[in-house]
Automatic annotation (TrEMBL):
Native organism taxonomy: Bacteria, Pseudomonadati, Pseudomonadota, Alphaproteobacteria, Hyphomicrobiales
Alphabetized Pfam families for the sequence: Peripla_BP_6 (PF13458)
Swiss-Prot/TrEMBL keywords: Amino-acid transport, Signal, Transport
Family per similarity comment: Belongs to the leucine-binding protein family.
Recorded coiled-coil stretches: none
Protein's recorded name: Amino acid/amide ABC transporter substrate-binding protein, HAAT family (TC 3.A.1.4.-)
Transmembrane segments: none
Signal peptide: 1-25
Swiss-Prot/TrEMBL GO biological process terms: amino acid transport
Keyword Transport: yes
Domain of life: Bacteria
PANTHER family found in the cross-reference section: BLR6548 PROTEIN
Organism: Enhydrobacter aerosaccus
Residue ranges of every copy of the Leucine-binding protein domain listed in the record: 40-390
Length: 401
């Protein structure tokens, strides 16, 4: 015969469990896969062969350098990081296939620093549905950190780079006010990335009570911008926001120079990279962009950033840049919060550590990062930079909305 007290206790426990169900339902499902006594498996998809490989390759290199450094020091609470990299070619379909493989076959614990707005957007639900955190995508698109309170799985999204919309708004507004510009225009990539830049442009124009003189777009992968640039010249634009990445930025300004069109050009964080002045040379002189960190040039970096820059150059025979520093930072940030989660690492404990408000400080002087249950974006201060004599120079380090 069963103990009546045991039966009562069981019924009481069941009742308590039923009462707790609504609260539990508000908590996201977080995976525990990819964690063994000796290893943490992370995945990423990058553009290693497509139109923005100038971002994907150095980001990947920076991530690998961080993984090697962490593992050489004993790992995270005794676990080594295993990083699996897939090439998306900046193709949303390939990003989806890569994410499915990483989640289902490789059993990753988290997706770290995936590359590109359209590619990240296409694959994001695969991760969230599987309970795999999407951490610090290399895109500033709002969907990478904004959360719907009615969708608990969206709490698995975190980002730490300046959002395109807010940073473009702050930088464009400042330049229009500072220089007395009257005929703002935009040329943007017709996808999720470009539309975020367009939103920032529209908000900035509204802030200064102006009307856009021209709004034009191009398809991802395009290389001919003659019609867009000709339209902006014909419309008398004195200020052009470029919702472009690297080669498109240089291509648009080269076309402008060819036809004698010389407005003030301004770009998003996607164009705030050393490749723009390197490829554009004199065409890029004077170009403005907003960014999240000072460019870590090897001959001017100091302290730990200098040591990192030298190690990067020695390892890859490439000069360090924003992209490689960002890739390094993303792994180091993951390690910070995974260590905080403790030796008994689980998905739930990692999420709690991420949302704890604990501060991560990098070696490159980016604003300190911290997250909470309701705020999964750490970047809200931006740097206005300009190309001078072939290098990016910080003009203003406290841009805010």
């Amino acid at each position: 015969m069963r103990n009546p007290f045991s039966i009562a206790s069981s019924l009481s426990a069941a009742a308590l469990a039923l009462v707790a169900l609504p609260a539990l339902a508000d908590e996201p499902k977080v995976t525990n896969q990819g964690v063994t006594p000796t290893e943490i498996v992370l995945g990423t998809h990058q553009d290693l062969s497509g139109p923005i490989k100038s971002w994907g390759v150095p980001v990947t290199n920076g991530m690998k350098l961080a993984v090697e450094e962490i593992n050489a020091a004993g790992g995270i609470n005794g676990r080594k990081i295993k990083l699996i990299v897939e090439d998306s070619g900046y193709d949303p379909k390939r990003a989806v296939l890569a994410s499915q493989k990483l989640v289902e076959k490789d059993k990753i614990f988290a997706m770290l620093a995936p590359m590109g707005s359209p590619t990240v957007l296409a694959a994001q639900d695969i991760l969230l549905d599987a309970g795999v955190p999407q951490l610090f995508p290399v895109t500033s698109a709002a969907f990478t950190y904004q959360m719907d309170p009615k969708k608990p799985q969206e709490r698995l999204k975190f980002n730490n780079v300046p959002p395109y919309t807010e940073s473009v708004r702050a930088g464009a507004r400042y330049l229009m006010q500072d220089k007395g510009l009257k005929k703002p225009c935009i040329m943007y990539q017709d996808d999720e990335f470009g539309k975020n830049v367009l939103d920032g442009f529209n908000q900035a124009v509204a802030d200064v009570k102006l009307t856009p003189a021209a709004v034009t777009s191009y398809k991802r992968g395009a290389s001919d911008f003659s019609s867009q640039v000709a339209k902006m010249k014909a419309d008398g634009c004195d200020f052009v926001v470029l919702g472009t990445i690297v080669r498109e930025t240089v291509g648009a300004m080269s076309e402008a120079k060819k036809i004698g069109f010389a407005p003030i050009f301004f770009g998003s964080t996607a164009a705030n990279v050393v490749e723009v002045p390197e490829l554009g040379k004199e065409v890029a002189e004077g170009f403005y962009a907003v960014g999240g960190m000072e460019i870590p040039y090897r001959d001017t970096a100091t302290g730990k950033a200098k040591d990192w820059a030298e190690a990067y150059y020695k390892t890859y025979k490439m000069e360090p840049n924003t992209q490689s520093a960002l890739g390094y930072d993303e792994v180091m940030m993951f390690a910070h919060y995974a260590k905080l989660a403790g030796k008994d690492l689980t998905g739930a404990k990692f999420l709690a550590a991420m949302e704890s408000g604990d501060v991560f400080k990098d070696i490159f002087g980016m604003p300190p990062a911290k997250f909470s249950k309701t705020d999964h974006l750490s970047a809200n201060v931006y740097l206005l930079q300009q190309v001078k004599n072939g290098r990016w120079v910080v003009l203003k380090s406290d841009l805010k909305n």
